[in-house]
Amino acid sequence: MRLVSTINEGHFEYRHSLKQDWIPVREKQDLEHLENLHERAAVRMDAQTEILLVSLSDYARAEDALTLDLDQEAACALMNKLFHQPALKGYLVNLDENYFKVVDEPLKWICQDDPIEPDCYALQLATSTGINVSHSVRQLPGQQELYQSDETVFPGPPLAGKHGSGTPLLHSQAGHRQP
Amino acid sequence: MEPRYSIPKQVIDSLEGVEFLRKIGASLPPSMEDRVVDIDLRGTFDMKIVRGLTSAETEHVLCEVSARDASGYRTEKLGKDGWDVSHQEPMKNKVLLRFIREHLYPIPGLLEEMGFSYDPQVGAFKARVTRQFPEKFAEWAKQLPKELTVNMDDKLKTLLADPVAAAVRFEVVNQEIDWFDLRIVIDVEGVQLSKEQIRALVAARGGYVRMDDGGWMRLEIKLDNDQRDAVTRLGLDPFDLSGETHRMHAMQLADPKAAEVFDPKAWKRIKDRTAEIQIDVKPDVPSQLQATLRPYQVEGFHFLAYLATNGFGGILADDMGLGKTIQSITYVLWLREEFARKNKSKKKSSSLRFLSFAPNPCWTSGREKRKNLRQACASSSSAARTRPIWKTSRRITTWSWSTTPSSASAGKP
Question: Is the pTM of this model over 0.80?
Answer without folding.
Answer: no
